[in-house]
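If you are new to this repository, start here. Below is one unmodified record pulled from the training split, so you can see the exact layout before writing a loader.
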Amino acid sequence: MSTTLRRGGPDDSDDEPSTAKRAKPMPTSDMLALFATLGLPLTTALTKSYTHFSTHTPTPSEGYVLGVDEAGRGPVLGPMVYATCFCPESYYAELSSLGFADSKQLTEEQRDRLFATLQAHPQAGWSIRCISPQDISQCMLRRSKYNLNSLAHDATIQLIRDTLARGITLRRVFIDTVGPPLTYQKRLMELFPGVEITVAKKADSLYPIVSAASVCAKVTRDAHLSNWVFAEGPMDLSTKYGSGYPSDPNTVRWLKESVDYVFGFPGIIRFSWSTCAKLLDDAAAKIVWADDDDAQTNAKLVTFFGAKQEPTRQRSKFFTRRKPIVLGATL
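And here is the target side for that same chain:
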């Protein structure tokens, strides 16, 4: 199969397929049961990033097409989820007719039903890399910066490698870009020679396989947020976060109502976001961290007032209590 199924432009009347328009609401209880069957960790606190692969038996004689997209890159709270969807090339036309579209163009009910439909097709598979807000915060606030683009690139590369490791022969891969498309595409082609890779802006609106990945990512992120388990224990906080974007007044309202004067925000928040930092400056207690110069000055004063030697400087318990994350294993 050499043709590439692709949608028309934003003004094309077929951009939102009729099957998606006719989708009926799916009961919340059914979705929770589905996620429980899939084995996603919705009932425990999401403090660590994780990867999940659907059950899929590869077809050895066929090449596969795979799409990659994400959900939750911009919000100030919750996880960022990267997802793939893949199927044999001979099945791609049928998958493309199921009604997948950019998840932002679909209602919650439409996304849920499409996600459930995907589970019923043995020819299609999917995977996710769910990056916890705590890992995002730790990566972006460390001394040697590990920014969001690097997180996104590494999550995509890991998902593709894991797919290949499962015996799936990838022929074509379509990816919604992060950063300049050509630079990103060149890097991926060097890492995966022999695979036809297309990186494009708005790929989730152009290629149905990317649209399917977009739905998997969005449904998984929404499921985590709506069933969020606070690692800090039971908290008297609303779960009406809004969209999670800093420009959303409902999100800003939730942030202002949820800040604690001493402890700040719970672990659902990405502390590296400027919105969060400003609210902490305005509404929480000020914290002063002694830098090296201050510590040396204090040590000299102790020596001057009769100490025989400078005291041994110990690391704050804040750092010793927390194990540093290993990027290769955690992300």
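Two things worth knowing about this chain: The beta strands are 50-53, 64-71, 80-88, 125-131, 170-176, 196-200. Confidence is low (pLDDT under 50) at residues 1-27, 301-311, 316-322, 324-331.
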